[in-house]
């Protein structure tokens, strides 16, 4: 079993005040479709998730973004699919605990889950198919595998996306200015692979996952992006047999819901292996798509997340608010 990676510094989105157009009453309004709006929305989401016990109101968030409240509300909803107020309602510890109760009552993860890698799993409006690296690729650390990568801004933060010829192999949240650290993590996960920076190659997938909202979901609707219009997003996963089994189980946790480490352990037929499951969850290299953020402690505490507890809280709040809005 591979040891759980050491926690990294908390992911933070770029503060609105650091943006050239923010905080100035003379600045031109940011168009709702401007990609730069992603950084403003990400900063607001980070603020709401970090200060969830005393969240700022719409006026405060708009002032930090350098916009009028009405314009900021429209930009936020366009990029995130929900209003700031709606997001704040779902970012509390009580929401996480409520999800746990609902999961226990509904038998969220059954012991009879089909864990075969051939079946697609639903991620909101995206389909995700997991494909394991060959034993030879795993042992050699990906030697002979060519990986193209790029950094992309989205409403949930800046991400590093990487892909082999067989699918996405890495998705990590990377704070502005810490790109070198994110790239070092990619190299550590695929030490034998050759890496080429090519954001154009990963842009379609980024648009499919984090693009502007259409009909209530983050989805760029790009025909070549692996979203609704282009078939499933395929993941190329490098891990032990046990890790692959755990990661496939995570794909079975419904969007907007959570499970405990013990739930996942039972679902894969190892009810006494919650600690080993935790190690496998922590070793996940494809955040969001393999939803390790949906695994939480039985107390509802949101910690033990590779990309930081603030990001984990933001992801769960966004999913919960989006799901409730779509009911």
From TrEMBL:
It holds the Pfam family DNA_binding_1. Residues 38-141 form the HTH araC/xylS-type domain. It comes from the Bacteria. SUPFAM superfamilies: Homeodomain-like, Methylated DNA-protein cysteine methyltransferase domain, Methylated DNA-protein cysteine methyltransferase, C-terminal domain. Its EC number is 2.1.1.63. It catalyses: a 4-O-methyl-thymidine in DNA + L-cysteinyl-[protein] = a thymidine in DNA + S-methyl-L-cysteinyl-[protein]; a 6-O-methyl-2'-deoxyguanosine in DNA + L-cysteinyl-[protein] = S-methyl-L-cysteinyl-[protein] + a 2'-deoxyguanosine in DNA. GO terms for biological process: DNA repair; methylation. It is an enzyme of class 2 (transferase). One of its GO terms (molecular function) is sequence-specific DNA binding. InterPro entries: Homeodomain-like_sf, HTH_AraC, MethylDNA_cys_MeTrfase_AS, MethylDNA_cys_MeTrfase_DNA-bd, MethylDNA_cys_MeTrfase_DNAb, MGMT_N_sf, WH-like_DNA-bd_sf. Keywords: DNA damage, DNA repair, Methyltransferase, Transcription, Transcription regulation, Transferase. Belongs to the MGMT family. This is methylated-DNA--[protein]-cysteine S-methyltransferase. It comes from Rhodospirillum centenum (strain ATCC 51521 / SW).
